[in-house]
Amino acid sequence: MNSIHTLDTPSLLLNLNQLENNLNEIRDIAKQNGIEWRPHIKTHKSVNIAKMQLEKGACGITVAKLEEAEVMAAAHISNILIAYPLAQPKKLERLKKLSSQTKVILAIDSFEQAEIVNTIFSGCSEPLEVWIKVNSGLNRCGIEMEEIVELAQKIKTMKPLALTGIFTHAGHSYAASSQEQIEKIAEDEANSVIQSAELCEQAGIPIQHRSVGSTPTFKYGAKIKGITEIRPGNAAFYDMCQVGLGVAETKQCALTVLASVVSKKKDRIIFDTGSKALSLDQGAHGNKSVVGYGRVINHPEITIERLSEEHGVASFKDTLLEMNDTVEIIPNHSCVVANLFEEYIVHRDGEVVERWKVEARGMMK
């Protein structure tokens, strides 16, 4: 086995021990609360990691885009929630083909979309399973709660569709300024789903699945009675955004970028990790605790202050780093960084054990 510090840079490193710890924690939280776990794979985009999650008890997976679902299905992964309101006929034709091969669930968030999906899937031998997405405060996709019964009733008249769940995503938790605010968002997130489901059931429409769980909120949402499923994605890796929110500690961050010092000046040090390796993401606007563009492990004297495409420019105070020294950098947003590399270099305690492809990187359609 080789040490990670013998690798060329920049390289995407995955600490297998910490990944396993993070996945085990999510599994245990779901098990303790008697609910299911459907991780979002847009964080890692990896068949190997998705299969690890399923082996540890996940009931299925969540994806953001249809291409991600196709990649995972090609690897014989089933029970896939596409948490995105597909409406383009050419995409729905692809979805129709995919649904004939494996179990998929589609997000519905409007009357218009439901009509289009209904038309495309007319004549299919089996109905397409759909979940309604409700807006719980992110104000992105998602129908408002006061409209959900009407939408559910409309879907129930559509023979090609089978409504079985309601879900939401509290992405605004990434802008929280305190732990108390995260807990309040988690409570609102869960209640938006539970109350929506109750309204549907009062109208005679049973709702089997009630799903929540951004990474900042899933530990709280899992405990709320009436929730049946959590869907954390980033919690597989964590990152500096989560550390800034107080959701994780740096030691829990499983993903790092190996960088080399390419130049050192009297007032700055330059790494070979620019925006193509670390991204320009500094977290949500309300999260003021993210400093710079990633944390250099074991070097608190260094702050990465700016990125160009190939250069990470950092300030320092009395650093011992010199030309060609290597460091590990915890990225601000691991989901974005994973999409920038073709492979994970998987290691245990700094010794390389495997290389895993990032099969769903760049899958945006």
TrEMBL record:
Residues 254-348 form the D-serine dehydratase-like domain. Pfam families: Ala_racemase_N (PF01168), D-ser_dehydrat (PF14031). One of its GO terms (molecular function) is alanine racemase activity. Its EC number is 5.1.1.1. SMART domains: D-ser_dehydrat (SM01119). Keywords: Isomerase, Lyase. PANTHER family: D-SERINE DEHYDRATASE, ZGC:162816-RELATED. Belongs to the DSD1 family. This is Alanine racemase. It comes from Alkalihalobacterium chitinilyticum.
